[in-house]
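User: I've been trying to design a sequence by hand for this structure and keep getting stuck. Would you show me what you'd pick, starting by listing the structure so we're on the same page?

Assistant: Good idea, let's start from the same input. This is the structure you sent:
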C-alpha cells in the first residue's frame, strides 16, 4: 500500500481553507444525485465541512467521513459535537476511538482510515465521494478501484480535483508564477499529480470504468473580500506551512524567497482588478451492476481478485495519468466473470 506524503499538511492556514468548503461550492455536480436515506462515504474528508453538508443532503442516511490523518479526524469530530448534524448520534466518537468502527446506526461519524485499504464491506455505500484527494495520491487508479469496491452495484463514485496548471489569474504576477511552479514541483516530488483535474477521466478508464460522466467547475475569487481571504490564505500557506518547508528541503527556494511569493499574494489581493479562477475536473462513475447478476457475490467472484487487478495496473497496465485507450483490467475481469 503506498505511504504517500500529503503535501499540504494540516496546519491552521490549510484548515482555514478546507473549512470554508461546502457541498454547494465543492460538490455541486453530485448534489442532484443525492436522495434522502442514501448511505455515503466521504474519502479524505479533512475537517469535514463538505461531509456535514452531504450528511444533510442524504439525512437520515448513514454518512461516514474518513481521513488518514487522526488529528484532522479529531477536528471533524469536534465539529459534529458542536453541530449535531443531521441528527444526534448515539455517541460522538472522539479521536481516541477514531479508528475504524462499526457504528452504522450513527448518522454521521468520522473515522481514521486509508483510501487504499478501506475498512468497509463490498458495496457498503450508495455513494463514495472524494474532494481534492486523488491529486495527492501516487496511485489514484488503485484508490478509484478501492472506492468502487465499497460502493454498491449501481451506486456512484464522485471525485473532484483541482488542476494547478489550469489556474488563471489577473494581473500577471512573477510571484504567483513562482508559487505555481514550486507547488507543482513539490507535489510531483511526493509522487502526486497537481494537474489531476484533467486526468480524472483517464484514471477512471484506467480503473476499468465505462460509465463515467466528466464535468468541470471553478472557484472564482475577484471581489475585495474574496480576494483578501484567498490571497492572505495563500500568503500564509506559502510562507508558514509544510508545502513551503518541503520546497526549501528540496532546494527549490529559500524562506526569503517564499516571503516574496507571500507578498505577491498580498499584492494580488489588494489589486482592485485582481481575479483568479481555480479550475476543477469532476467525474461521476456509475459502478457496474453486471458482475453481480445471477447471484454472483462480489467478494467471491470479482473483488476478491482486486489485488491482481491492481498488480495489472501497476505492471503491464496503464500508469496513473496515462491517456485512455489502453488495456482495461477491470473490464477484462468482468468479461471473464460473465463469460
Ligand atoms: C486537500 S485535503 C481535502 C479535504 C476535504 N476533502 C476537503 O476538500 O475539504 C486532502 C485530504 O486527503 C487526506 N488523505 C491524503 N492521503 C490519504 C489517504 N491515502 N487516505 C485517506 N485520506 C488521505 C489528507 O489527510 C487530507 O485531509
Amino acid at each position: 500500500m503506498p505511504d504517500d506524503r500529503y503535501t499540504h499538511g494540516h496546519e491552521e492556514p490549510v484548515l482555514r481553507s478546507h473549512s470554508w468548503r461546502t457541498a454547494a461550492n465543492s460538490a455541486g455536480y453530485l448534489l442532484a444525485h443525492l436522495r434522502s436515506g442514501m448511505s455515503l462515504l466521504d474519502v479524505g474528508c479533512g475537517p469535514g465541512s463538505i461531509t456535514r453538508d452531504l450528511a444533510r443532503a442524504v439525512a437520515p442516511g448513514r454518512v461516514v467521513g474518513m481521513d488518514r490523518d487522526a488529528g484532522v479526524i479529531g477536528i471533524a469530530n469536534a465539529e459534529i459535537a458542536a453541530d449535531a448534524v443531521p441528527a444526534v448520534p448515539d455517541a460522538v466518537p472522539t479521536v481516541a476511538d477514531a479508528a475504524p468502527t462499526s457504528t452504522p446506526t450513527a448518522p454521521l461519524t468520522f473515522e481514521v482510515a486509508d483510501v487504499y485499504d478501506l475498512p468497509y464491506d463490498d458495496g457498503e455505500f450508495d455513494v463514495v465521494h472524494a474532494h481534492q484527494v486523488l491529486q495527492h495520491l501516487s496511485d489514484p487508479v488503485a484508490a478509484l478501484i478501492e472506492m468502487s469496491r465499497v460502493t454498491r452495484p449501481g451506486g456512484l463514485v464522485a471525485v473532484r480535483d483541482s488542476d494547478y496548471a489550469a489556474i488563471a489569474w489577473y494581473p500577471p504576477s512573477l510571484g504567483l508564477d513562482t508559487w505555481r511552479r514550486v507547488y507543482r514541483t513539490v507535489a510531483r516530488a511526493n509522487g502526486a499529480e497537481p494537474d489531476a483535474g484533467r486526468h480524472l477521466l483517464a484514471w477512471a478508464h484506467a480503473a476499468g470504468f465505462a460509465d463515467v460522466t466528466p464535468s468541470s467547475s471553478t472557484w472564482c475569487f475577484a471581489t475585495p473580500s474574496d480576494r483578501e481571504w484567498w490571497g492572505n490564505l495563500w500568503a500564509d500557506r506559502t510562507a508558514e506551512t509544510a508545502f513551503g518547508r518541503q520546497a526549501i528541503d528540496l532546494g527549490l527556494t529559500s524562506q526569503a524567497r517564499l516571503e516574496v511569493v507571500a507578498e505577491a499574494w498580498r499584492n494580488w489581493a489588494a489589486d482592485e482588478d485582481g481575479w483568479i479562477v481555480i479550475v476543477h475536473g469532476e467525474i461521476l462513475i456509475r459502478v457496474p451492476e453486471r458482475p453481480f447478476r445471477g447471484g454472483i457475490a462480489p467478494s467471491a467472484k470479482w473483488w476478491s481478485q482486486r489485488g491482481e487487478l491492481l498488480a495489472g495496473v501497476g505492471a503491464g497496465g496503464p500508469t496513473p495519468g496515462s491517456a485512455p485507450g489502453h488495456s482495461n483490467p477491470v473490464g477484462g475481469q468482468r468479461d471473464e466473470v460473465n463469460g
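That's my pick for every position. To get oriented when you compare it with your attempt: Residues 4, 6, 18, 21, 44-46, 50, 67-69, 72, 114-116, 131-133, 136 surround S-adenosylmethionine (CB under 6 Å). Confidence is low (pLDDT under 50) at residues 85-105, 292-339.
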